[in-house]
Design goal:
Layout lengths: L4 E6 L2 H11 L4 E6 L2 H23 L4 H21 L4 H4 L2 H12 L4 H10 L4 H8 L20
Parallel strand pairs: 1-2
Helix pairs in contact: 2-3, 2-5, 2-6, 6-7
Amino acid sequence: MGKPAASVLAGPTHLVEALRTQLVRPRLRLYLTDDLVGVEISGALKNVIAIAVSGVRALGYGENAAAALLSRGVAEMARLAEACGGRTETACGLAGVGDLVVTSSNTGSRNAKLGALLASGMSVQAAVDKIIRPEARYVGSPERHLPQAHA
């Protein structure tokens, strides 16, 4: 039936409540918030932090350095979310810390692979080209629309 999971739905209350009724599943817990800015900031920055954490690990700096980077990254994520009009608790909740834990601990994720390749000295474009499957580059693929690195 699938493993238990949780996710955050962000937007105007009436819309996310209606959406939740369509998405409800026995093993899926949906949390609702009207803090769209906090969710957007958290979703973007957790990727950057996860890439950096992966780079630190790939360089052999150890788990203490990775944990320090991760925790300082969360603090900055919360500050930026608040500065942009979001809420600190969103960055410190499932949309921020929760997603960051999953992203930074999954060594098979694209973010982890990118961090390791960058730490090895590979350019951003070469690393992205290596990570993205060739078949994913066809028109209509979401991965096709990743920003291109420019020197």
